Automatic annotation (TrEMBL), chains A, B, C, D:
This is 5'-nucleotidase SurE. It comes from Thermoanaerobacter wiegelii Rt8.B1. It catalyses: a ribonucleoside 5'-phosphate + H2O = a ribonucleoside + phosphate. Its cofactor is Mg(2+); a divalent metal cation. PANTHER family: 5'-NUCLEOTIDASE SURE, 5'_3'-NUCLEOTIDASE SURE. Gene3D superfamilies: Survival protein SurE-like phosphatase/nucleotidase. Its main location: cytoplasm. The gene is surE.
Length: 252, 252, 252, 252
């Protein structure tokens, strides 16, 4: 079985490298990851300049490449340039920091997995609570089990999984299938002055409304569950088609 | 009525500036746009460095600001920093080039409108065929009508509109509510060598399968319709929740 | 006579555009400037990705191009791509902010003029005190006189001029040929934390030692003179050749 | 003795890492290098956004930091933020690729050493022929000897050394103190079209005139010598001061 790994923390990302090391005994693992950190890059791709690809490591069962692109670029390069055959599964992560609720729209980690799903390859985005112990072997054992399950059962067409793993030090309640919660921010920008007296704005963001729906990824992770949210990427709002057709908008 | 305008072509973008000029007679128009072209940037936001905002023009009914951020950053800056009150509507575009089907996942134009919808502000993303005549007054008259309609009727919660306008030179069939079509690419990268002999890959992409579904934006625009696709941004795949719960994935 | 203009403030830079407008009555003026601000970029050039060139304005006696490169890239593009014949003189500026003493090593404005001199084209870097009135017609009249003089007399091989213009509101003492002064900074970095609590360092820089040598550009500008420093770019320290040869450094 | 190391190839640069490993037995070595490749960046510094510093390795006698800045930024960060005391010497390199003649004006490697000299710290820029064997122990032994000599003898004020090491496979003639040669390029840009049909220009550059002066770094390296060029950074052209004063340039 062939696994393609990527992330948005960059090719030095500890979560991804530890996962690669863990998986390489069982699978043929290829990593194609951004040469530097590209978080909050969402689904950006690089159209207007060329991409570079550099092999940074090769050993038994594991090849690592760095590219000067986004996570989505890396998935494309991995499938179209690096690998001779389509991988059996693509993992994006382990991201150090959760990717929950509305925020996944901004996430490079989740977008890379969506890109894989566009290619019709089973894909899992994996994020870990920042305070968690990345050395905890249970994280890797769980992911191995999940990968096995996905390879065995398959995923529905145009569907991928977004996995968020809480800090195990606070106890593990179990694994839970969740829906995306809502994240509303307030006071998004800190205004300040640089050393030359020039004004700037730095995105801050405090969460304003606490999500309370127990079915959501946000609440589930907070309560100690590993959250698995099934994700699609069809942005059509079918319910509004008829409404729109009734509007009768004039051109001239 | 207050309109906030942005785009991903940058603050010099002709489509946006012409729309701003057209709308400023009727509305109070504020433009906050990237200082340089940021296409294919998707929903990327700038967390790790500060943003700069610069007023580049101020005249009756029109203020224009440039920011060193992404289209989504510009929407956030517009709402949270530039405007004293929430705008009544946000327009992203006019993008010179269509944003259709699966490709909207990569689009900065559409992502800026999604960002607006996250703020619960009615939003329209507008894209124009590259060969079209950006001076054609019918484009602006249609958009004025659409804006009026949205302000009058409102949009359902968490819904925005993605508008694609064909080349009118080939005739206009009318306005059509559409669903997102599918875009599959092949041979995505051109491999080549730079003047110093170093290998590079440049994303190319030929469309491999022709979308034929008449309900889609892709086919509708090709046939000469102005396409309006209602867009949501809830990526939860509800149908798979039960399947996932039945999987019984072990942690250890 | 053909003049090529560039700067490091970007193609919207007011100082450069006003100079271009002033000079276009008398000369054929072509502007090739960075699409965005590139100050403190020094002599950087773009080897590893391609450059784009975009005509942004064309009118009688004046063409303006924007490039996605550095000031030095712009000089190269101007000479090798845009202009059919070598320009008679290249002006870099008017930079809004002085470029004095040791600091010219960091300056994109001065480096662009050095690049011109490498091409054996007479070149002048022009910088203006930040508090000065960029509308003051005397600035432009003086530069016209200086350009005339350089075109008439020529410049020695591998030599260019670095001009710094003080705030005329404080009186003008005259024009003075100067040497580069010394700028020593202390406490160069402000340490701080971003909104996510991550440490960063922002270059600040207070000048520690006041230059007192009256022959220097620093002192001359402070006293109200327009400073003209003749600049070369041969970095060989000839005096040390013999010392080095006496060292007898072993290889193995 | 404390050595600060940097480069413009990035913190993964093999030449720099091998030198660090070699020197750490004898000296206390600290590396502060750009997180990614920054060649041809010249003396650029980062004024308008904050810098990040990340410790990537710590072991006996060797600490390695990555920064999101230029080589000159790294020297400043090394001296002002990372090290408690001024280093005894700063080495920039080993750059994989020579830095010869006029081209050193563009070089990040040489500019980092100039930055060190501005701080009055002895500095050596080191570059190696691209075809050379970076494992050749003689390179490191020679550099150790040179460092010892510089620490013993000191360098004149405002002077640094630019060292270029040829491919030893072609034989080593010895060590030679040199002057900077001249590099003139022709046909600098390759014009081409990207996959979307948009024109671009890629800096190419063929050397047009062959430097023949035996005293130069260019000829010396070609002949098999290790070249050491003493470098200063006073760009004043003193010979032109009197000429300029005689010009009598009018202001109005």
């Amino acid at each position: 079985m062939k696994i393609l790994l990527t992330n948005d923390d960059g090719v030095q990302g500890l979560g991804m490298l530890k996962l690669a090391e863990y998986l390489k005994d069982k699978y043929k693992v290829t990593v194609v990851a951004p040469e530097k950190e590209r978080s909050a890059i969402s689904h950006a791709i690089t159209l207007h300049k060329p991409l570079r690809l550099k092999k940074v490591k090769e050993e038994d069962g594991l090849k690592i490449y760095a590219a000067n692109g986004t996570p989505s670029d890396c998935v494309k390069l991995g499938i179209e340039v690096v690998l001779e055959e389509k991988p059996d599964i693509i993992i994006s992560g382990i991201n150090e920091g959760l990717n929950l609720g509305t925020d996944i729209l901004y996430s490079g980690t989740v977008s890379a997995a969506i890109e894989a799903a566009i290619y019709a390859i089973p894909a899992i985005a994996v994020s870990l609570a920042e305070t968690a112990d990345i050395e905890d072997r249970r994280i890797y054992k769980f992911l191995e089990n999940l990968i096995e399950k996905v390879l065995e059962k398959g995923l529905p067409k145009n569907t991928l999984l977004n996995v968020n793993i809480p800090d195990f030090k606070k106890g593990i309640k179990g694994v839970k299938a969740t829906i995306l919660g809502k994240r509303i921010y307030i006071e998004t920008f800190q205004k300040n002055y640089d050393p030359r007296g020039k004004e700037y704005y730095w995105m801050a963001g405090k969460i304003s409304e606490i999500e309370k729906d127990e079915r959501t990824d946000i609440v589930s992770v907070k309560e100690g569950y590993i959250s698995i949210t099934p994700i699609h990427f069809d942005l059509t709002e079918y319910n509004m088609i008829n409404i729109l057709n009734s509007w009768d908008i004039k051109i001239e």
